[in-house]
Amino acid sequence: MASTLNQKEATDNQNSWDRLLPDFPKGPLCRYRKKASFSWKEMAMFLNGEDIIQFKNRIFSSLENDPLFAHHPGEDLRREKYQELTFLRCKRLFEYDFLNQQELLENPLKIFNMILCLGMYDWSLCIQLLLHSGVFTGPIISASRRFAHIVKQVYNMEIFGCFALTELSHGSNTKGIRTTATFDRSTQEFIINTPDFEAAKFLVGNMGKHATHTVLYAQLYTPDGQCQGLHSFLVQIRDTKTLLPMPGVMVGDVGKKVGQNGLDNGFAMFHNVRIPKENILNIAGDVTAEGKYSSSVKDVKERFSAALGSLSNGRIMITALSTTNLKLALAIAIRFSAARCQFGPTEDEEIPVLEYQTQQWRLLPYLAAAYALDYFSKSLFENFVEFYAGVLTKQRNQRQADLGREIHALSAASKPLASWTAQQAAQECREACGGHGYLAMNRLGDIRNDNDPNCTYEGDNNVLLQQTSNYLISWMNCIRDKVPFESPLGTINILQDYHHILGWKFTAVSVEDCMDSSVPLAAYKWLVCYLLRESYLKLSKEKQAGLSDFEAKNNCQVYYCRSLAIAFIEQTVLQRYHDYTHDPTVPPALQPVLKNLSALYGLWSLSKHLAMLYQGGYASGEQPGRFIQNAILELCYRLKDDAVALADVLAPPDFILNSAIGKASGEPDLCIEMIKISFSSEVNNKPEVPGVFYIRLLRVAEIDLLIRAILQTGACYSLQYSIQFRVEIDIKETTESTAVWMRLSLYHHVASKEVMLSLAVLTLREDLKASTALTQHSPRQELVTKQIHPPQECRFNSRFFSLTFNTPCRQWQCYLQHFEAIKCYLSLHENLLNTNPDAGSKKDIEVLENVQRRAMELVKELKHESCEEWLRELGVFSLGKRRLGDDHSYLKGACSNIGLGIFSQIISYKTRGNSLKIMPGEV
Ligand SMILES: CCCCCCC/C=C/C(=O)SCCNC(=O)CCNC(=O)[C@H](O)C(C)(C)COP(=O)(O)OP(=O)(O)OC[C@H]1O[C@@H](n2cnc3c(N)ncnc32)[C@H](O)[C@@H]1OP(=O)(O)O
Fold first, then answer.
1. Ligand 1 centroid to 315 CA: how many Å?
2. What DSSP assignment string belongs to 837-893?
3. Is the distance from the beta carbon of residue 520 to the nearest atom of ligand 1 less than 6 Å?
4. By alpha-carbon position, which residue is closest to atom 29 of ligand 1?
5. Does ligand 1 lie within 6 Å of residue 301's CB atom?
6. Do the beta carbons of residue 651 and residue 56 sit within 8 Å?
7. Cα angle, residue 543 at apex, residues 537 and 549 outer, rounded to 5°
8. Nearest partner of 422 among 471, 491, 468, 373, judged by Cα
9. Virtual torsion, Cα 525, 528, 529, 532, nearest 10 deg
10. Any idea where the Acyl-CoA oxidase C-alpha1 domain is (predicted)?
11. Largest separation between any pair of C-alpha atoms in the chain
12. What is the best residue among 311, 318, 464 to mutate for testing ligand 1's pocket, by most ligand atoms within 8 Å of CB?
């Protein structure tokens, strides 16, 4: 009976997993998926839970089915266009309203996941939304209820926000900020001024083009001439209707960046800009009508930390954003490594590159880090939710203050750890995928470049690490005075055993002994205590030598305080992950792989501190180092067959991952991607370059892929162009083989001229796996003609089957029929060759002509088919459907919706400059 129940439970589970997590398409990755020691679906359910998976699916499918979110293949989207599109998308996200207040309160992890889902799709969009509805709105919500109407305007997108702290000459050093806000008693206003160019607000996300309001950080001056320190103010910088700068504000875009170019980063200078007294965000302090400064926080330092408190939230999110980049890069590189075969034990046999020890060692520790950091970032976010609830309910007890300090210390180190790990991983993954990794279409370059600012914004990584080491060193007084202590989250509680831990030694006596994360965890505890002692001693010594606090601190960073902060955060991440993976409630089938990941993350991270372990006497002799290295390699080997399933758990759907080599099937369809890119960039940017696509077809099935690629690409770009297709099939015989070449000529109308587009020569290799390469094929001149043929002309001779159709791209049904005819033609031809191998070489003109005639007849017959049937057959129904009818509707919709909101604008399909322009008569 019990076993029947268990069986039923197992079946129910399986059904629910299958419903939420569909199987992946068959392909070369199947062999690894079969070898996995666990079910990826069970793992995904365990890590996320049904509710979150459903929620993520809803977001992913909404983006995939919305034409506004269609990808623009290649990297040729101009910056202005990309920024404009990002803004339209951001606005559209509010229309989706993925998360209501109730859902958010019930499960705050939903907002966390929503942000990450958007980031997986595009970081510019994600950061734009975060800056507007989080970084800008957070301090406003925390300040006072008097801003409720502003918050409403934020969520209606009636205003658009940014967060202006950084200045041209002051980024990390917030105390050095020089913008001023002087209170004017006579008008009950603050006057905002930028003293000089160097104090201009700089690099502020959303400020470049779109923001109408900013949370502005400035030194507050009371009428008595006293500077009361850094405070934040709500300032309008642009007119909400015209987007023209407000009087006294000079604002603009800072130009192209290394990454995230869909985001408009800007600068601003203020000259006697007056804002009402109520616009001070009174988190740290306020000013009375008489101009007296008042604050419930008496201590200046505490006031400073209250003013900057909102940055902790940002750093926690950046920890998670970086971890997401780590996950994306790993998903791509592991899938590629499992499908890509290169070299082998014999000349005839090539093996997947994942089988090589070096490849495992390069990638799998990062995979383990992705799992550990993923868990950590979620748990830290949950800690923050607890803290933020206290902020909103105005709790002022000791625990709340201690929790704030601890979260600040953790996030100031977890941001550096996660962003650096992701940065290094993205580069390693890029290289591990060779030339394919270098191609923009595979997204590793974008992941690396878009991750890059995570190391800098919300505080430079190295500067922030000092906050963590300061926090740790601050506990030395309690240790020295033997005063009992603990922190709300318990992360510093190991220091209670400081003296005892300093006496620990490395005790493992074999490699097998090291295969559990308890071994690196013990070493980390020792390392944290050791580095704390060394940093403290060094600091004391420097001070005793007569150096100022400032100089002493400066001399204690490298090899001391900096290493301490890094070791502490790695130990904390590992501790949490170790506890999680060793919890008895983990499903038995998942325990071994999760424990392996935990051990690998711990040992690999620890291996970077080997010198320190020896230097401090924790390890001695040859064995500890050897054991750790061999255990890392053994764990990589043990995880190798699980790697694809582990990557599957992390990877979003193909549309979101948007990487040809990262596809779930392991079939990169590079041909399609290249055509899309070549086609789209030519159409989009260089319309007057003449050219032809030559595509060599070895299997009839391939034409389906091409049709899909062309349709999808056309779907993105046909809105502005009427495109003509001309297709010629050239059956080319050599002594070794018969090859079918398809020449696809694309024309479009530019100023009523017909221009031939794009020259790209593609060769598909037989297996279509990862091996598409651009090759030199000299096009035969007799085939190249720039003449447009009359519509729907068919021409035959013994080798060529040529169809030209002169149709606006929007009318899909026209050219679908023609493609179908070509397909029939090729099928018949292929059948012919299969049944009669001599047919090709004998140049049996009569037979070929019969085939061609039949294909011609098919074209006529096919005209009566409904276009929707064609689309469904080709699997592009939804894409096609939303283009049928009013082709411009999606853009019109998006833009006109904005028009209904704050921004009156001229909708322009020309993308030069900001399309948000002033309506005639409004100025
Ligand atoms: C959701 C995010 C998405 C991505 C967002 C992307 C957009 C990016 C926007 C930006 O980048 S905006 C601006 C970025 N700039 C910064 O982040 C500034 C970095 N600098 C600082 O935060 C501070 O200047 C500092 C380096 C942390 C402090 O340096 P300073 O030496 O001047 O002060 P201390 O003496 O160290 O600190 C005094 C006191 O205050 C405590 N404290 C500081 N920050 C916080 C905080 N966030 N929370 C709580 N407490 C804080 C600090 O620990 C000290 O306390 P004690 O040690 O004295 O107890």
1. 10
2. THHHHTT-HHHHHHHHHHHHHHHHHHTTS-HHHHHHHHT-HHHHHHHSS-TTHHHHH
3. no
4. 173
5. yes
6. no
7. 110
8. 373
9. -170
10. 309-473
11. 102
12. 311
Tokens 């005063």 -> residue: 483
Q: 575 alpha carbon to ligand 1 midpoint, in Å?
A: 26
Q: Which helix (H) or strand (E) holds 706?
A: helix 701-717
Any atom of ligand 1 within 6 Å of the Cβ of 119: no
Confidence of residue 837 (pLDDT cuts 50, 70, 90): very low
In ligand 1, which atom is closest to the CA atom of 166? Answer: 13
Q: Tens of pLDDT along 398-446?
A: 999 999 999 999 999 999 999 999 999 999 999 999 999 999 889 999 9
Residue 458 annotated as catalytic: yes
Any idea what the Cα angle at residue 423 is, between residues 434 and 172, rounded to 5°?
155
Average pLDDT, integer, range 104-132: 97
Angle formed by the axes of helices 461-473 and 518-544, to 10°? Answer: 90
Catalytic-labelled residue, pool 84, 167, 406, 458 = 458
- As a whole number of angstroms, the distance between CA 105 and CA 212 comes to 29
Q: Angle at Cα 906 formed by Cα 905 and Cα 912, nearest 5°?
A: 110
What are 228-255's pLDDT values in tens digits? 999 999 999 999 988 899 999 999 999 9
- For the Cβ of 318 lying below 6 angstroms from any atom of ligand 1, the answer is yes
Is residue 652 lining ligand 1, measured as CB closer than 6 Å?
no
Beta-strand ranges (E) seen in 644-772 are: 693-697, 723-733, 738-750, 753-757, 760-763
Q: How much is the pTM? A: 0.78
Q: Work out which ligand 1 atom sits closest to the CA atom of 171.
A: 15
Q: Per the structure block, which two tokens stand in for 849?
A: 């002509």
| Residue of 382, 463, 371 whose CA lies nearest to 415 | 463
CA dist 461 and 483 (Å) reads 32
Give the pLDDT confidence score for residue 830 in this predicted structure: 52
Q: Which atom of ligand 1 is nearest to the CA of 411?
A: 47
